[in-house]
Amino acid sequence: MRRQLICINCPRECHLEATQNADGEITVTGNGCARGVAYARQELTDPRRVVTAVVHTTSETMPWLPVKTAAPLPKQDIAPLLNRLYQMTVEVPVSCGETILADVGGTGVNVVATTECVV
Ligand code: SF4
User: How confident is the model at residue 87 (pLDDT cuts 50, 70, 90)?
Assistant: First the structure.
């Protein structure tokens, strides 16, 4: 398997080429530093993303609360999470950083509020 990637770890945006051989060994070229190798290996073996969304609240003045995952989530867990979040209604008050949903899909990753909602 061979993939072209752009490293997102710094503004240099190195163009990486990651190759995985039959034994599973991954070689990376085009990286400006070791973080690019780690990024490419993660993308080939366990790609993850921080997820941002909004959830409905019981507030009349702030009916939608912005939330995000507290850590990157495996990509296969993103669609189920979004389906769940869009069906939720959160009771106010909520403080910034408060956990809205714990241990998404058994990953240990929580969804937290990114702002407060008091009324
Ligand atoms: S490989 Fe290193 S230098 Fe290149 S974009 Fe990634 S972090 Fe920046």
Answer: very high
